[in-house]
Design goal:
The chain starts with a strand and ends in a 7-residue tail after the last helix. The protein has a five-stranded parallel sheet, with helices on both faces. By secondary structure, it is an alpha/beta fold.
Length: 647
């Protein structure tokens, strides 16, 4: 059997095209075809065909229509025979048919193939696949089918068609086939005159065809239409393109040629303009990188899946200070390097820098665009302009972008392009917003497994220093909280003293009254656990910082909401909010419902700061209880003064 939904619904069996009967019977078939190979309940069919205007005989009508469809689609099958193309199952019906047998299914498969080919820089193949997909359309989907389900599917498929046309036209423009793109866009703009992306592409095609006046006329027409119909002005992208056309901006030019890109043009089609430079900005990965095999495998799987769907891969690597987020991101980036021939970009967003405020997206875009060869004289002043230019330059390119140490989602969103790019983000905060709104994949790193910690020590100091001292190595790893940064600092100290044994180093760390002093490299703020912890605490909101200070004054392994509320003189609801903020910043670890504990060395940091403060902890806590609305330096001074901690 073969079905067509991308126009008036039609069906064929082995004998040829078959009449589908009255409108409601066509609606039942269309609904079952739209959910092919899935059981559709009687109630779903009734809702999808009649909506709120349901007759009392609706159930009998469904049975009648299904019987009629069976006679039409499978005339040789007996009335009582089970199975077949249209079968009863689970209190409903299922239409068993391959995706390739329905034109809407073939459209989706061809569209997906086009995106994949485009991500692989095969523009000629992608254009052919887009044309194969769009050729299946004969008019509006479900054109002669009544009912709510058909209306929803009609709208969904119309959106998919518009998206495919936009991507096809963009691919045509990238290889210099402007006339074909303009013809396709003209037809679609007539169907959807308020869609700004179609008009953006039309303006670009006209400009590149030497029809600048017509491109500007399209903008004037668009502005007038939007004001009359919706009372709004054109969006940022259209306004920027208008200004670029007025100034004949160099960014709109098409340069280079690709003889294999298509059959249009005597000398072959032009390929997308080459970037001024091919960036290769990735820092070197951590030497002696150890562990994280499971996390890296999960991240690679995410990247593979997103590429298979033809969209940018966005992954966020989260965790507490010193856990090795950047090392994991760079390890993955170097593993994926060969898959990104168009270049690699790297930016430090300074979300938890000890001396600098987090960078805004506008500042970061200046760095990224500079890495792409865009000089300061060509940089737009505003954030929307820089975002549009960055996405235009990166769109369709297999590029890898590492954004290190993000503070919040608004730093990241303008830096994520469309197309086959891979964006890796690291952050000390849980980025729920990027996951919910932008579809980011989040992965949280915890301390290394003890065996991986011992292996890291062996790789840094030499395996012979660890041989026969496995117990001491495990104890040192425990004292370092199994944090890679702490382990590397301790191992570096051991490597610098060949006569010092692991056991002696363990005793030194275990008996030190300010153990975090041992986990720092002099004159290197990037190699200090205390500096890393200081920066995380400084980034906390006021209420959460106060709660952290209170918890540091207490010597309890388990932190419950009632205990925290009593200590901070807050309601349990308010205390729960502050504990959740600390957990989102990876300064506390959730161990059960409304139960928390400090993450390894962070608890030691909080306690050492309290003991080392010049302030009397008991007096400070008493004052906090009396005046919970005030944040006095008596309570928090020790947290924000590096000289107080461990002095």
């Amino acid at each position: 059997m073969r079905l067509e939904l991308l126009g008036s619904i039609r069906a064929w069996n082995e004998e040829g095209e078959v009449p589908l009967g009255p409108p409601k019977q066509r609606a039942v078939l269309a609904l079952l075809a739209g959910q092919a190979n899935q059981v559709t309940g009687i109630d779903q069919i009734i809702d999808g065909v009649w909506g709120t205007d349901v007759p009392q005989s609706a159930v009998n009508c469904v049975h009648t229509y299904v019987a009629g469809l069976r006679r039409i689609l499978e005339p040789e099958r007996g009335r009582r025979e089970s199975g077949g193309v249209l079968a009863s199952a689970g209190g409903g019906y299922v239409l068993s048919v391959a995706a390739e047998a329905i034109d809407a299914g073939r459209f989706a498969l061809a569209h997906m193939r086009a995106r994949r080919l485009l991500s692989e820089s095969d523009r000629a193949g992608a254009i052919g696949a887009y044309e194969e997909a769009l050729a299946l359309w004969r008019g509006d989907a479900y054109a002669n089918v009544p009912g709510p389900f058909a209306a929803l599917e009609r709208a969904r498929l119309h959106e998919a068609r518009l998206t495919a046309v936009e991507e096809w036209a963009e691919a045509l423009l990238s290889v210099g086939r402007h006339t074909e793109a303009i013809a396709a866009l003209t037809d679609m703009i007539a169907k959807d005159p308020l869609r700004e992306r179609l008009r953006w592409l039309m303006m670009l095609g006209l400009h590149r065809s030497g029809r600048r006046a017509q491109a500007l006329a399209v903008y004037r027409e668009t502005r007038q239409l939007l004001q009359e119909e919706l009372g709004i002005d054109p969006g940022t992208d259209l306004r920027r393109l208008h200004q670029q056309i007025l100034s004949d901006h160099a960014a709109l030019a098409l340069r280079g040629a690709d003889p294999g890109a298509g059959a249009s043009g005597a000398q072959g089609a032009a390929r997308a303009p080459a970037l001024p430079v091919r960036p290769a900005q990735l820092p070197p990965g951590a030497r002696n990188f150890t562990g994280r095999a499971e996390e890296l495998a999960r991240l690679r799987n995410v990247v593979e899946r997103e590429y298979g769907e033809g969209q940018a891969a966005l992954a966020v690597i989260e965790g507490p200070p010193g856990v090795g987020k950047t090392a994991v991101a760079l390890q993955l980036a170097h593993q994926l390097g060969s898959r990104h021939p168009d270049g690699q970009l790297f930016a430090d967003l300074c979300g938890s820098h000890p001396d600098r405020a987090p960078l805004g997206a506008r500042e970061v875009l200046a760095q990224l665009l500079g890495g792409l060869g865009i000089g300061p004289d060509r940089l737009p002043d505003d954030l929307p302009g820089r975002t549009a230019l960055f996405r235009s330059l990166v769109h369709g390119r297999r590029m890898l972008i590492v954004l290190d140490d993000a503070a919040h989602a608004e730093q990241v969103r303008p830096l994520v392009p469309r197309g086959p790019a891979c964006v890796l983000v690291t952050s000390r905060r849980r980025q729920f917003g990027l996951a919910a709104r932008d579809g980011a994949y989040r992965i949280e790193l915890g301390p290394l497994a003890p065996r991986d910690s011992v292996e890291l020590l062996a790789r840094v100091v030499g395996r012979e220093r660890v041989t026969g001292q496995q117990e001491a190595a495990r104890e040192l790893a425990r004292l370092c909280g199994n944090l890679p940064l702490a382990l590397r600092i301790a191992a570096a100290g051991l490597a610098a003293k060949p006569a010092l044994s692991l056991a002696e180093l363990v005793v030194d760390h275990a008996t030190c009254t300010a153990r975090l002093d041992r986990l720092a490299v002099e004159d290197d703020v990037a190699a200090s656990l205390r500096t890393a912890f200081d920066a995380s605490v400084r980034s906390l909101p006021e209420g959460a910082a106060r709660m952290f200070g209170v918890l540091g004054l207490r010597e309890q392994q388990l932190i419950t909401v009632p205990d925290a509320a009593a200590a901070a003189d807050l309601t349990e609801r308010a205390a729960a909010r502050q504990l959740a903020v600390l957990a989102d910043h990876h300064l506390l670890e959730e161990v059960g419902r409304e139960r928390y504990r400090f993450i390894n060395l962070i608890g030691l940091y909080a306690a050492e700061c309290a003991r080392g403060s010049r302030t009397d902890p008991d007096a400070a806590l008493d004052r906090l209880r009396r005046e919970p609305a005030q944040v006095g330096t008596d309570v928090l001074g020790f947290m924000f003064s590096a000289t107080d901690c461990g002095s």
